[in-house]
């Protein structure tokens, strides 16, 4: 399913490399509103109820991120589409391979 004109949230652990890369990669979209956050206490931007409520579709980098969100915010997550991208924490910010992985993974769901 391709989502159009939606609020998109990318989530990883620290919001320094993967989800931040995704936000910066897709933030200039004329079709979607894009933000990012992290699940860890040391995250650059910490995940919050407000961010999750804002999001219409949530992309997490790993299954453990989805489980953390479901555990911490069960009522909000019941109504949200959460997609696991299966992108491991082995890339730096804007790494070429990470950019290609994100584009390939997200293009199944969003018009880029």
Automatic annotation (TrEMBL):
EC number from the UniProt entry: 3.1.3.48
Taxonomic superkingdom: Bacteria
Broad class of enzyme this protein falls into: hydrolase
Key words, A-Z: Hydrolase
Protein name as annotated: Protein-tyrosine phosphatase
Protein's organism: Pedobacter africanus
Taxonomic path: Bacteria, Pseudomonadati, Bacteroidota, Sphingobacteriia, Sphingobacteriales
């Amino acid at each position: 399913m391709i989502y159009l004109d939606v609020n998109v949230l990318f989530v990883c652990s620290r919001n320094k490399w993967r989800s931040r890369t995704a936000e910066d990669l897709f933030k200039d979209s004329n079709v979607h509103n894009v933000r990012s956050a992290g699940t860890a206490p040391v995250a650059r931007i910490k995940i919050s109820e407000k961010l999750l409520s804002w999001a219409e579709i949530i992309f997490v980098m790993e299954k453990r991120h989805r489980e953390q969100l479901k555990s911490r915010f069960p009522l909000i997550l019941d109504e949200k589409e959460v997609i696991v991208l299966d992108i491991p924490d082995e890339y730096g910010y804007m790494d070429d391979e990470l950019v290609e992985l994100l584009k390939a993974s997200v293009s199944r769901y969003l018009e880029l």
